[in-house]
Structures are given as C-alpha cells and as structure tokens.
Amino acid sequence: NDHILLLFFTNFESYFSETPSIFLQDSELRSTIFQKSANAILLLDPDKDLILEINQTASRYFEIQNQSEILNLPFSNLLAQDFTHFEYTSRKKKILSGETPSWDLEFKTFRGKKFWGNTSCRMISTHLNKIILVQIKDITEKVNTRKSLLEQAGTIAEHEANLNAIIENSEAMIWSIDKNYKLLIFNSQFQNVMQDFYHSEISTGFNLFQKELPPEIAKYWKEFYDRALSGEKVSVARKRPNQDGTFIFSELSFQPIRNTEYEITGVSAISVDITDKN
C-alpha cells in the first residue's frame, strides 16, 4: 500500500540535525528520497498550516498537474470532511503537545476524486525548530470493502427478517435441525404441535429424540432425517388422526442444509396440510 507523508515544519533544513554519512557522500540522495518516496510528503507551516512543498508522489495522489495549484493553500483544504473549528484545533493541539494520534480521514484531490487515509502524526523537535510528521496510509480499498460488507450485512439482516416473517406467517409447519437432531429454527405452528406431542416446552437446541419415544415412531422419523443428512431430498404424504376422529393429511419435505463448502450441516423440513385435497 502507498503511504502519504505530511510534514508541518518551520525549517526543513534542520530536520536532519545529524546528517548521516551517506548523505555527505551523495548530496542528491536526500532530495531523491524526498521526491521518489512511496509516501507522498507535504511540508507545512505549523503556525499557518500552509503547504510549502510537496514531492512527486503527493502530486500523483492529489492529482496535481502543477505545484502552484497546491502551494500556500491551507492543509484543511485537502480534507473532504467538514471539521468544526473546535475539532480541527483540538486535533492540532494533540499533535503540538507531543501526542502521536492517528485518524482515518477522507481527502479530496484537485480533480474531484476522494480517497481515505489512515493518518498518524508525530512531533519532531530540535533545539532550533519543530516539525510535525504526518503519515497517511491509503486505506481507500479497505474502507470501501468495509462499507460493502456492512451493506451486505444489512441486506442479509433484512432478508432474514423477511424470511422469518414468511416462516412465522405460514400455515405450514416449518423447522430445521442440525446433524445431532437438535432444533435450529421453527415456527409457532410446529412449536404448538410438538409441545402437545412432547407435553413440554421446546426451544432452539431441543433434541427431537432426547425423550423416550416408541421405537417405531423414532425409527419412522429418524429415517427421513438420516436420508436428508446423506444428501437425499425426501417427500412423503402421511395422515394422522384428529381429535374428532377424522384424519389430517399432510405432505412432508426434508432437504439437506449445506454450508458454503457444500457440506451437509442439517435438515430443513416443512409439513403442509393437504386435507382439503383429499
């Protein structure tokens, strides 16, 4: 990732108070590092916040064709966000006091585009001058990805809410279990019938075979779940007696639930009353 480096300064010459020997041997090296740095570097007056110098990388980041477009402008002009005077001065005071804060800020280019940068600041002092070093790491892609994920999460949550409403308002019995026959989700129609059957409350995590069931009943239902857990889609019509002596006819469907790796993690089931069709 590219970085943007901003400097608030009073005298750039004093920045290197102790000149490394390599710079003494190559007088052009310091200028080359400044201009060719992967970071965009801006030098600013710490009192007036005016931009006094930039390097080539900064010109590219801010889409500047001529340095005269940006020189002597306030640094705040580069910000896409609107800060109150109090917010701006408070942040600057943190830097001047010696703190090393960092913020995610949105910048604007001179061609109308915007980009995000993680902006970290540090005060550098000598016996003659003070410089504020501001490094901006381009996080535009990261911010856009985060926004996209949040939008997707919102969409998924909305879809889940709609799905839950559909499930709950359906006249059919709808439920699902995991590989251990424990309930995952179910609607009130299923809950009412099962609580009458088990004579106890049921909730998420309830094991459909945890109570003593007649062997023939347990075998009957377990076969459907096991077939679906093996990858088969099962449909069956059945009838059960009603309290008034009549019969209720229903059509049941069992389908395997798969995760993103296409592994079977459970079974979804639905029972539709088809009595009127008989």
From TrEMBL:
Q: Which SUPFAM superfamilies does the record associate with it?
A: PYP-like sensor domain (PAS domain) (SSF55785)
Residues of the PAC domain: 232-278
Q: Which SMART domains match?
A: PAS
Instruction: Read off the InterPro entries from this record.
Output: PAS, PAS-assoc_C, PAS-like_dom_sf
Query: One of this protein's Pfam families, by short name?
Result: PAS_9
- Domain of life of the source: Bacteria
State what protein this is by name: PAS domain S-box protein
Q: Tell me the organism.
A: Leptospira interrogans serovar Grippotyphosa str. LT2186
